[in-house]
Design a protein that fits this description.
This protein is α/β, with parallel strands linked by helices and about 230 residues long. Helix content is about 30%, strand content about 30%. It contains seven helices and ten strands. α3 crosses α4. The longest helix has 16 residues. It starts with a strand and ends in an 8-residue tail after the last strand.
Amino acid sequence: MIHFQNVTKVYDKVNKESIGIEDVTFKIEPGEFVSLVGKSGAGKSTILKLLIGQERPTRGRVLVGEYEVNKLTVSEMPKLRRQIGVVFQDFRLLSSKTAYENIAFALEAAGRDEEEIEEYVPQVLDMVGLSHKQYHFPNEMSGGEKQRVAIARAMVHNPAVIVADEPTGNLDDVNSDEIIRLLLRINELGTTIILASHAKDVVNKIHRRVISLVDGRLVRDEKKGKYIIM
């Protein structure tokens, strides 16, 4: 379970300005698919950064499973981050490595041995429908294919949660639909999905829970919601 308890993040404590989020409370149960929506500056990115421990709250508690994120030490943080796979809008693939090598690199960094890597990388590439592209470099793939590689990389540690930060932001409608269908399939396998997006059409096609933010405050939380422009 993910639980934000009365969380506030202020970036300028001295002048009490630049509020990322203010007094935000919500719970996400295991296996949910949640869209986190709002305009640029609404607080979506702040919530994601707090969730993965990249930022610490000014006030309140952030809990992910057994971890209270704001109390983790630097040495404890990798344990949390193995539970959370992150997908970015700009893919963040290594341009000098193939699709296979980009995924393998994430496993190598976690200390997996060569036998495990050779077994697991083809599995996750097959899961995202890119077995035939495993030896292609990022510049040889479309935007949708690169995002699928990024999703495969996020899945390498079999995380409990996938955080997708504007994953369709650089894609056309066809590729956007493909990425959302893939995330829904992953969710059906039991992985919690948190999708941060300001794309109204994308969110409204999902028909799942929607948490809406305006100026750092949670203004709406609906089980089968829509993105309503505020």
